[in-house]
Write a structure and sequence with these properties.
alpha+beta; Alpha-Beta Plaits; seven-stranded mixed beta sheet; 7 strands
């Protein structure tokens, strides 16, 4: 399912190619980067608690080396076993109703903070977001987690002490249009069958 502006939940088909780099948007990003020192956009990845462990077959990257294109850690069942032993709760995943709630919550915080949400893909075990904002990526990611958790709790999902998200996540700085285009195509077209997907109009 794909969402576009306005927030009225208009559903559209995924286009074969959709460029986010129209002139008004491009200059808006450039102004932010040049005048405020922020990158054109961020690629933020939030992982569900206990789902993407180091050494798992799904692949992972080290906390300190986690930019787009970084080589993944090789599968290591012993590492997975050690990390599983540290889990305080069962791994968390997002079913279809939860994914819809999370998508709308992230859109809500972007609207409230006046952040430019370019694309957002909520998967069962992780979330990809490309957003332009005059803020540090850690704050952006923490706000996304907080809004999503609050929305899930208000909808009656999970107990109050449920751990939903991995401790941190991936925060990639996108300094040029090529980097933005690569991440955009990765998030929209290279995640397999679309789940809850939003693309900016």
């Amino acid at each position: 399912m794909v969402y576009q502006l306005p927030i009225s939940e208009k559903i559209v088909k995924i286009p074969i190619y959709l460029s986010v780099f129209t002139l008004p948007i491009r200059y808006n990003f450039m102004d932010k980067a040049n005048n405020l020192g922020f990158p054109l956009a961020y690629h933020i990845t939030i992982t569900c608690y206990g789902t993407w462990l180091h050494g798992s077959n799904s692949g992972s990257v080290h906390r300190s080396v986690n930019t787009y294109g970084t080589l993944r850690i090789r599968p290591d069942p012993h590492w997975v076993k050690r990390e599983t032993a540290y889990l305080k709760q069962q791994p968390y995943s997002l079913d279809s109703p939860r994914r819809k709630i999370v998508l709308n919550a992230i859109r809500e915080v972007c609207h409230f903070r006046n952040w430019d949400l370019i694309t957002l893909h909520v998967r069962s075990e992780h979330i990809h977001i490309m957003v332009s904002a005059s803020a540090e990526p850690e704050k952006i990611m923490n706000d996304f987690k907080a809004y999503a958790s609050r929305a899930l709790s208000q909808a009656g999902y999970d107990s109050k002490d449920r751990k939903r998200w991995a401790r941190h996540g991936s925060t990639e700085y996108l300094w040029d249009e090529k980097a933005m285009e690569n991440v955009y195509n990765y998030v929209v077209y290279k995640q397999g069958e679309a789940m809850e997907l939003y693309v900016r109009e």
